[in-house]
Amino acid sequence: MNIGLLLYIPYRDLENRIMAAVTAAGYDVTLAQARVLQRIGPDGTRLTELAEAAQVTKQTAGFLVDQLEKAGLVERVPDPTDGRARLVRITEKAQGAMPVAAREMARIEAEWEQHLGKRRMGQLREALEKLCEITDPYR
Amino acid sequence: MNIGLLLYIPYRDLENRIMAAVTAAGYDVTLAQARVLQRIGPDGTRLTELAEAAQVTKQTAGFLVDQLEKAGLVERVPDPTDGRARLVRITEKAQGAMPVAAREMARIEAEWEQHLGKRRMGQLREALEKLCEITDPYR
DNA sequence: TACTTTAATCAGGGTCTCTGACCAAAACAA
DNA sequence: TTGTTTTGGTCAGAGACCCTGATTAAAGTA
User: Fold this and answer.
1) Nearest chain A Cα to B125, which residue?
2) pLDDT tens across A97-114, in order?
3) Which residues of B spanning 34-63 put their CB closer than 7 angstroms to strand C?
4) Could you give the angle at the alpha carbon of A90 between the alpha carbons of A84 and A91, nearest 5°?
5) Among B19, B33, B41, which residue's Cα sits nearest to residue B100?
6) Beta strands in B29-126 (DSSP E)
7) Could you give phi then psi for residue B96, rounded to 5 degrees?
8) B91 touching A, CB under 8 A?
9) If we measure between CA atoms, which residue out of B44, B22, B24 comes closest to residue B33?
């Protein structure tokens, strides 16, 4: 079986489950919005940085942030260090969604470790981390 | 680092590179089209099966097959065993694209094995195959 | 025959993402 | 200082993707 599909199948399962958990908790967020939300740092992050991290254009990131702003999940504040820039920050309201996602993620990881065994799970993580050295365009 | 991202980063790199290779070879195919194309069996496959395998609705699969048909990469022929159904088949023209993708895939796998070493690459594949047992909705 | 299921399509709409053009602030160079 | 380039962000327009709901036709079933 093709290695691409082998990577994709567990990834999609994980993503679907996390999205379902977040939706079930009452947060109406789309996948694309979640991908941006995930990248926002504790002190706020510039739009351009978000776009790079999420691998989309500035326009796309701006569009998604607009939606998140309308939903009250993020806010834009001026960047004190640069008059052109604004920082995208997570609001109080969105803070509640983070632990929901984190809990589901922990649950999934535990299930995977249960199925693979501790040894193989460790090997998987180690191999993937090593692989990211040559496949991650951001480092 | 989050296990979801660890799976996704190499996956995306692989997909991007294969798409680039196919495009460079003169086949003007989008990602979504490629995902459908990939699933077509040697004797043709029904639309409904394609939709299931690619995890999209029949309508979406139909839309993508329409485009592929216009581009001359697939054709629809009646299914001799079922008057309602039609088989989507790969045309002569598209046959040329398959080896291009396969060669790029082989090249990438070789690079990965080079970076990880034979042992870790084997462990990675083994762990992913095991993981697909519980994450693949189709088996 | 009448009912149910299955294969596929039609119609319409929402979401995501892109290219290209543009503006304004910051950084740099002469 | 003044002009030039870079950088952060937006606007406008379009295309790609994917969905829900309704419909047609063939197949299977009671």
Assistant:
1) A3
2) 989 999 999 999 999 999
3) 46-49, 58-59, 62
4) 115
5) B19
6) 45-46, 74-78, 86-90
7) -65, -25
8) no
9) B22
DSSP H/E element including B135: helix B118-135
Question: Reduced to 3 DSSP states, what percent helix, strand and coil does chain A have, rounded to the nearest 5?
Answer: 65, 10, 25
pLDDT at residue B113, rounded to an integer: 97
Cα separation, B139 vs B120, whole angstroms: 27
Q: Which residues of chain A have a CB within 8 Å of the CB of B126?
A: 120
* B114: phi then psi, degrees, rounded to nearest 5: -60, -45
| Percentage, residues of chain B above pLDDT 90 | 83
**Model-level pTM?**
0.88
Residue A6: what residue type?
L
B118 reaches A (C-beta below 8 A):
no
Cα pseudo-dihedral B66, B68, B70, B75, rounded to 10: -80
Return the exposure string of A39-57: e unless at least 16 CB atoms fall within 10 Å of the residue's CB, then b.
Answer: bbeeebbbbebbbbbbebe
Q: Are the beta carbons of B124 and A127 separated by less than 8 Å? A: yes
Triad A53, A54, A56: Cα angle to 5°: 115
Yes or no: say if B12 and A133 are a contact pair by the CB < 8 Å rule: no
Distance from CA of B57 to the nearest CA of A (A): 16
Residue B12 identity: R
Give residue A138's pLDDT band: very low, low, confident or very high (50, 70, 90).
Answer: low
